[in-house]
Amino acid sequence: MVVLNKIYTRTGDKGTTALGNGDRVAKHDARVAAYGTTDELNSVLGVARLHSEGEMDAALARIQNDLFDLGADLCRPDMAKDAAAEYPPLRVVASQVLRLETEIDAMNVQLEPLRSFILPGGSALAAQLHVCRTVARRAERLSVELSQVEDINADAVTYLNRLSDWFFVAARVANDNGQSDVLWIPGANR
Questions:
Q1: Where do the domains of the chain lie, and which CATH numbers do they carry?
Q2: What's the CA gap between 74 and 68, in Å, rounded?
Q3: Could you tell me which of 63, 73, 64, 67 has the C-alpha nearest to residue 31?
Q4: Which residue has the higher pLDDT, 144 or 19?
Q5: Cα–Cα distances in Å, from 129 out to 24, 25, 56, 155, 182?
Q6: N or C of the chain: less Cβ packing under 10 Å?
Q7: What predicted TM-score, i.e. pTM, was given to this entire model?
């Protein structure tokens, strides 16, 4: 259980922060950028939830919890030491990715196939889900970049990849099952 009695610690005043294993790194470290962007995504998702209800809101709440799991995963290096750890770090697992895929498939059944690219917009929820989609893509890019220099959990990257797809399909659902999607008209303003 996490207990936060004091919010400021002053330990980061000189531009460093602690990772999940206690190591201190620069606040601009690639790992910090990856999990920091995941935290940003969670915050943006909180704004999207202001416009959601019912099953959609329940799904978004599950994803917010998963994003905390993902942040915990990304802030903890030393993948090789996981098996020997007294308290193994929390890692995103394949079943979380599978749940996203199952939900994408279930949502997609309701939608007509796309015959055009769509512009971010439509309903307030759809617009916010498109913001979530683009932040998820940035978190994915930063995680892939991190994976080029350090070992990270491959399921974490896969989760982010699938999550951006989830947000895209959910945005279409939020747009009256695609009926209110804003279609791109190539060259319309030439």
A1: 25-78+91-178 (1.20.1200.10)
A2: 10
A3: 73
A4: 144
A5: 34, 32, 11, 22, 14
A6: N
A7: 0.92
